[in-house]
Amino acid sequence: MQKYIFKDILVVNEGKIQSADVLVKGERIEKIATGINEKGNVVEISGHGKHLFPGVIDDQVHFREPGLTHKATIATESKAAVAGGVTSFMEMPNTIPNALTLSLLEDKYAIAKQHAAANYSFFMGVSNTNAAEALRANDYKENICGLKIFMGSSTGNMLVDSHTALDKIFSESELLIATHCEDERVIKQNYEAIKKLKPLLSPADHPLIRNEEACYRSSVTAIQFAKKYNSRLHILHISTEKELQLFGNMLPLKDKRITAEVCVHHLHFTASDYEKLGYNIKCNPAIKAPQHKEALWKALLDDRLDVIATDHAPHLLSEKEAPYEHAHAGLPLVQHGLQLMLHYYKEGKISLEKIAEKMSHAVADCFRIKERGYIREGYFADLVMADLQKPYTVNGQNILYKCGWSPLENFLFNTTIEKTMVNGHIVFENGIVKEQNYGQRMTFENK
pTM here? Predict the structure, then answer.
């Protein structure tokens, strides 16, 4: 049985930073203490001056397999993920074919079992017509992270705008329901109004078309259904100041029935960046004016927003260069999300403890993930070692996404991810991803 020991490392965990040794035996964390002297065949890792974080759990990624593998695969994107300290991911159903049956969902699990460098789970997709099939996931709720509802346009047949379908899902689902909230009617009205004024649209029109009102109306609808049936609702990628009034911080996360996510790009970019980056930062929901970014930061730090994700959504650069209507929406981010938050730590915006909470602990609590998301004895050894004094510049040589680019290219981080461990195996170190795939299917406390 392989053993590792991180010696004299600063452990960032459960609201504290403390120097300790961390012994890993097999897949699990065996012991956390000072002065551990383990005999036998053990690999010692010097952690002096370095920080050890629980592995990041990204609750929203698009790895594009099956059907869109010209731009990404589970293998390529999970390797990029572990290079960025992401040890577990939850992937969305808008692949081709859409994951709208349990059989198609299990096909994705089979791919991940063979190719995932990180731990994995996949959302069951919901459409206007598959409610009965989606609800069959109740029988597998310990092995599926949740249902996903696009309450705004998406790939294929995944726009859910039927209140009959929504009522059935919210009333009968025993799983967490994750929603993309944008009101399609508002979006269409905005598009038609702006198109009349200027036939040739620009990137800066995107947040005017997919505006604050479109997000707010849809979030209100989802919350009304959740409150009616006491469902577990998780609203993805909140992007507007107005929506924040819908969420509270009076209850501990484990007691919340309605939770919310914010993504790294909405915490970093603003609408002023369209002038330089154009459609490279076109995403849904849109990156909006600076006051929204500031409001999101405030809500994240006061716990109205519960988790941080990336919504990693890679496209080829050629797919980004089309006119407005055809320029694909989505940003590749999973490799750099943790580093981006560590950048804001350096800027004094967020603490290391809060980063560990929002990117690991809270995701595990929100989704009720078994034995992950914390540095605890007996838990799976999903760990990230970072050097907060070592600079790192994003460039074409170290970007691991299959699409080959990043909106953060040439960005200088003042931190480096040195090692990533998944289930007790070092899968990334010194800039190199190991070829072995040690990811496992995550399980959940959904009884």
Answer: 0.97
